[in-house]
Amino acid sequence: MHPFTYQRATTPAQAVAAVAPAPGAAFVAGGTSQLDLMKEDVLRPSLLVDVTALPLTTISALNGGLRLGAGVSNTAAALHPEVAARYPAVSEALLAGASTQIRNMASLGGNPLQRTRCPYFRDPAQACNKREPGSGCAALQGINKVHALFGASNSCVATHPSDLAVALAALDAQVQVTGPNGPRTIAFPDLHRLPGDTPQQDTTLAHGELITSIDLPAFTGRSHYLKVRERASYAFALVSCAVALEMEGQKIRRARVALGGVAHKPWRVPAAEALLAGKKPSEKLFRAAAEAAFADAKPLEHNAYKIPMGRNLMERALLETSGLQPLQGPAGTAFAASVGGVSGE
Amino acid sequence: MATCYPPCAVPGSAAGRARVARSPHIPGCFAYAGLNLTCSMSDEPRLPLGEPAPDCLLPNGRYLHELRGQPVLLAFAPEEWNPAHAHQSTIFTQLLGAFDAGSSAPEAVVSCWHSLSCHGPVAAQFGVAGQRALLLLDEQGRLRWQTTIRPGHELRTGQVLAALEALRPDAPAPCAAAGEAAAGAALAPAGGGLSRRTFVTATLATAALLLLVGAAEAAGPVSPTETQPPMPAPEAATVPVTLTINGEAHRLEVEPRVVLLDALRENLHLTGTKKGCDHGQCGACTVHLDGHSALSCLTLAVMSEGRKITTIEGLAQGETLHPMQAAFVKHDAFQCGYCTPGQIMAATALVQDKQRRSAAEIREAMSGNLCRCAAYPNIIAAIQEIQTA
Amino acid sequence: MVEATGKPLERVDGRLKVMGAARFSAEWDVPGLAYGAIVSSNVAHGSVRAIDSAAALRAPGVLAVLTHENAPRLQPMPEKVNGSLFRGEGGITETRQPLQNATVEYAGQPLAVVVADTLERARHAASLVRVTYDVRPPELTLEASTRRTLPETFTGNQDEKLQVTVGDPKTALAAAPVKLTRVYESGITHHNPIEQLASIARWETRNGAEFLTLYDTTRGVENLQEVVSSSLSLPKDNVYIICPFIGGAFGSKGWMFAPPLLTAMAARVVKRPVKIEWRRQDMFAVAGQRAATRQTLSLGAAPDGRLTALQHDTQTHSSQSSGYTEPCARVSRMMYAVPNLGFAHQLHHLHLPSPCPMRGPGETVGGWALECAMDELAAELNLDPVELRLRNYAEKNPETGKPWSSKHLRECYARGQELIGWSKRNPKPRSMREGNSLIGYGMATTMYPAARRPAAAKATLFADGRALVQSATHEMGNGAYTIFRQISADGLGLPVEQVRFELGDSALPAAPTSGGSATTATIGPASLAACRNVLAALKQLAIRDAKSPLYGATADDLEARDGRLVRKANPAQAEDYGTILRRAKLPSLEASGEAKPGEERENYSFYSFGAIFVKVRVDELTGTVRVDKLCAVLDVGRLMNPRTAHSQIIGGVAMGLGAALMEETQYDPRSGRAVVRNLADYHVPSMADTPDIQVEWLNIPDPHISELGARGIGEIGCVGTPAAITNAVYHATGRRFRSLPLTPDKIVQG
Fold it and tell me: CB distance B303–A52 less than 8 Å?
């Protein structure tokens, strides 16, 4: 790990003031993703500004929705009764991610900012435009089993690994940010970006901008998150799917679907969402929506399996969210919200 | 302390007399911990320094008084088995080769090393019942040096070396005082000035202990001022950090890039917390931070300041295992034992909320702790026993 | 006195392990310790053009940078060590000595060691070393290999020939009324014990000679002592190796010697003790691995299912400098009564890290191929898979013709069927469903060779009546401390609390590398021999001592019981051990003992057997396979300790589950760099993946293996499990999968 200096901030303004002027500076909260990559020499910050002492650790009501402080731990958010009851997709996504220990450490503000699991990004000896712009993309012609189906470029085929982000994208959460130029609000689907020619930039955040909260808008429908992984727990998603479904009588008023593990960002599927709106839930409809969602998929050499897997998972997520099928998830997935395994929260 | 001793000194050169001596065949007369002795004595207050030691029967079948004329080292430890004892004998034998036999014939030196149960009658006789303690008797059978340690504490190399330095026949008095402060060791009023032979005995035995840190006998209290790494202070920017570990404050000077796991293992020598992957992917390094399970490999030491850190060393109450530890033993919830401290820390954090979890819920909640021996079904059984207790 | 052997004693090292007080190799507090960090190769093939250490040497705290240009010279790896072939085709280890030349043979090969005063500084300085290469194209696949060999034997063992023909399998196959030929492929897997490799090396000068102490993660102190001393041109006795605990090995930590050698070299250069703890990513390069295999299985059978021919041909790979060959026919060569039997192994030398044994070397993936092919044949013949196996039940070893020392496999099949509910399943494939899941049942035979090796031990009786037994074997979760204490207690006629067993130290009596499921059968008899010898000496003391009530007896008159020597004819005449010693003014009495296999090995074929039955859920829409229930019924001879044995079997089964469903290391097909090199991407089974595992034993002593009647249990749980799961997935889905692991990408449909 490269040497760095360390500062502890007590207010967001102080944190921003410390990071913004220093090009090599970064915020650190839970550290679970950052320290991992620093030990791999993938990240080499010259200054770490500790934001864990910031007063951003509460969950509060906001305009019929919830404001989740950026410093709230994944565990605390997942087990929060309001979150679990009104936004089950958020709870499910959080609990489907990582392990008890990591959920205890990780923060909501940091979670969506974790970097890709692309193995070439994580190995400094390999070409990676995201890690080292201009060096090339070793994944494009390499082992690209966990890579993107949508929105990739010749510069980068990486996917975004956060489970939480997929649920937040489906729920149209908003991200409150403060930075050198003051505060602003970002719609969650706009937080992450596609790689294009600048894959080094994961998000639309500017250097020195700090997420202060994630706001869940008022929502009275049902939501649900499903994930497929190679191991029954403690593994990143091969594909995942979050559904937010609002009904009007027997019909779907609005459906929002986000897919995980298939793109550089949580992947909303507007064509499928449009197809669902105003229709009565049925297996056939959900199948059609899932097919529409994957119609434009562009598989690489090793990731074509994600197309049937993603279609099936999306269909199942819709079936389970709508109540046409009982909640089961993929075989071997434990669901109960009580599995968080936190103590004393 | 490091000023008293070169930090890189090996035990042999520490005595300043490393040289040739044929390693003799040592008959299997070295003792090891936990021998039952036949003399019976009631609990006595601690023996004062300089006082003649009471007579007693040693594990080799000889009485202490028979050993007059040579220094004797007595080590008291819990009736606790530790395989490191195997190496005690071999290391000891090898160390002889590095020392000047001189006035202390190797056989004599070896035969005067005795490990005893701290729960036995002799421990009571010496006033160290139930404690880990090391006592040095001189040729006249008088107590010249002793050190004890509270349960859960660790021996630090520097402390013992400093204490040894103080015992040197030609040691200056101030250093003796330093040695006392450092190792919690009591010195004979004469300070240094031990006979060379007694000093060699102490050096040999203590050097053996140094190679055996964690062996039950080897112990010295860890004081907040004694937790600096043995290396010279790094030239890069270090920061002072005070870590509260198992209820005790430890002051460190570390670079900001030092993670809690390495601070525990390398700087504080609290090696119960394990490094299995160093990247948050196995759970072996699990500790409690403010009561929650957390990964010490992904936590900077500087960011742990002000938090309540509990490690595996902080679970047992003295010699009494934490119920989860006992349940792990009972259910054979481990094989190689390497992931075990992390499993136990995760499990104890899990059951704190008194929820009764199904096996499926335990499986999910504990999946952050990989066990390559796959003792999983037995770990579940151990946790279920504690949940329902 | 009740015998301790066979009792479910709690682990005697349990207390230390749950307290975090068991001392592992990286944890010794050696004064003056410096830290080493490795610079490894970015490329898989070529040579080092230059290593620029200047920046690293300028970094704070750096003591030295060792490269091939300045590192101490090493002697070549020995040809053979303790009977195992090291060098050459079929040899067990990587023969490349570290930092001796500029050639690069795999990505991740150590090219430099940076030593600094703290861990952080060493690691950081290692990242500052700049290596430039003359890169050559690597050969990374079986197709691309240009160096292919046909090794004659596995590790030089003449009983383990790798190219064998019995009868005429080719003609018999051509003539068989029913035949099938299938190709099975398995990926590279890694042991990934949770304890990473670590060594601490400390040099001293004694008698004017150099003396090296190594604290190393090794399960073979004897071999390591031999390799290190010969490599460094030291007398063997000047190398001392300690390893009282190993944090899991599973085949690793025994046969790869670069890590301790590099540590010893670094410590010699900086003239102070050095520790190198290898990173997890290094474990994918220097710790050994199970190579990938491509196996062609041909079965010929009569219409009733009796096998007429079996041909098992394996393509596998090794590195440039190792001849290690995954011996895939180890099950095929002995499992079924087949008159025409052939097997062959072709080895491809690739630019990949060296393989070495991994739990069930050969058996786990070779047995998988055979037992899957048997399942396919059963389906072809419309026979129950168990019935097909019974019709081909081998009453003797089909390769050698020797009778089995002990075999009760039929009972295992029968009990396994009961436990899983075999008869209640619908045998038709793709016929059972629950919710989103297809349900499948599968089974496979499991086995393991019951090896035994020569070993020595020492027993010491103390005047207080306690005893110490020692042998240079290892504790790696196998329960060695516990079961050898039990065995020794019985051997000495002492309660188990009065006896200690010590191991993991090269100064103790010689024992082979602990592995191959042979430790119990090897060390148990040696310990008993030492116990017998020390008791014989004690008897002589008593017999010759006029003050003893046993004075004048003959040795045969006396027996050892409850810590006393007792006159058989008159048990009232007895004396305890301590009294005899104290009166003789002896603080202790010690004796050595040795034991080795004898002519029984010529007369019998020694194997453990068992059957694995599983129930799986297959979610085809997501590709997820979940093992619901797993039953293992085993015939492993007499159990030494049912508690620790049970754990060992569970562990083996879970590793088989990992091999079946999730474990695979992939290397980039162009660069040869591991793209799976951490525990987030290399999936070892988590608690959520591991079902309830039901283990039952026949517990029938093997009358020939040794006086203990115990065969080994370390690997047999692993061997049959992948096939049982694969066959269950077939039963669930009606689809055959012939490539391990069965990850969701392969299973998913629709």
Answer: yes
- Position C1 pLDDT exceeds 80: no
**Mean pLDDT on C653-676:** 97
Of the candidates C150, C156, C153, the one whose C-alpha atom is nearest the C-alpha of residue C79 is C156
Name the CATH code of domain A5-50 (choices 3.30.43.10, 3.40.50.11540, 3.40.50.10490, 3.40.50.720): 3.30.43.10
Please tell me the distance from the alpha carbon of residue B78 to that of residue B83, in angstroms, as a whole number.
14
- In the prediction, which pLDDT does B221 show? 35
Distance CA A129, CA A136 (A): 5
Distance between CA atoms of residues B232 and B253, nearest Å: 11
Residue C449 has pLDDT above 60, yes or no: yes
pLDDT on residue B193: 58
- Residue B294: which domain range? 227-314
Name beta bridge partners: C189: C290
Q: What span, in angstroms and rounded, lies between the C-alpha atoms of B117 and B119?
A: 5
CA distances from A339 to A161, A236, A343, B340, B362 (A): 21, 18, 11, 21, 7
Q: Which CATH superfamily is domain A222-322 in?
A: CO dehydrogenase flavoprotein, C-terminal domain (3.30.390.50)
C43 in Cβ contact with C108 (< 8 Å): no
Q: Which of chain B's residues have a Cβ under 8 Å away from the Cβ of A341?
A: 293, 349-350, 357, 361, 364-366
Sign (positive or negative) of CA dihedral C618, C619, C624, C628: negative
The answer to ipTM > 0.85 is: yes
User: How does A93-124 read in b/e, with b if 16+ C-beta sit within 10 Å?
Assistant: bbbbbbbbbbbbbbbbbbbbbbbbbbbbbbbb
In chain C, the residue whose alpha carbon lies closest to the alpha carbon of A122 is: C675
Of A39, A40, A344, the CB nearest to B292: A344
At A237 the pLDDT is 97
Check if the beta carbon of residue C5 is closer than 8 Å to that of residue C487.
Answer: yes
Which residues on C lie below 8 Å from B335 (Cβ)?
248, 477-479, 644, 647-648, 651
Mean pLDDT of B354-380: 96
Provide DSSP, C102-121.
SEE-STT-EEEEEEESSHHH
Q: What burial class does residue A20 get, using C-beta atoms within 10 Å of its C-beta: 0-12 exposed, 13-18 middle, 19+ buried?
A: middle
Q: What was the pLDDT predicted at B8?
A: 28
Q: CA nearest C128 in A: which residue?
A: A2
Q: Are residues B54 and B182 in the same domain?
A: yes
Domain count, chain C: 1
C-alpha C692: how far from its chain's center?
24
According to the model, what pLDDT value does residue C88 have? Answer: 95
Q: How far is A104 from chain B (nearest CA, A)?
A: 7
**Kind and range of the H or E element at C369?**
helix C363-381
Low-confidence ranges of chain A (pLDDT < 70): 331-345
Lowest mean pLDDT among B13-22, B340-349, C736-745: B13-22
Tokens 């393509």 belong to C315
Distance, in Å, from the CA atom of C386 to the CA atom of C418, rounded to the nearest integer, reads: 12
Give the per-residue pLDDT at C540.
95
Q: Is the dihedral of CA C596, C598, C602, C603 positive or negative?
A: negative
Lowest mean pLDDT among B149-158, B167-176, B184-193, C161-170: B184-193
Q: C715 an active-site residue?
A: yes
pLDDT given at position B173: 46
Distances in Å between the Cα of B118 and the Cα atoms of A116, B59, B185, C127, C430 are 56, 13, 18, 49, 66
Beta pairing class for C178-186 and C340-349:
unpaired
Q: In angstroms, rounded to a whole number, what is the distance separating the alpha carbons of residues B195 and B220?
A: 24
Provide the whole-model pTM: 0.89
Say if residue B282 is in the same domain as residue B331: no
Helices C721-733 and C363-381: angle between axes, nearest 10 degrees:
30
**Parent domain of C494:** 452-461+487-499+514-601
CA distance B238 to B236: 6
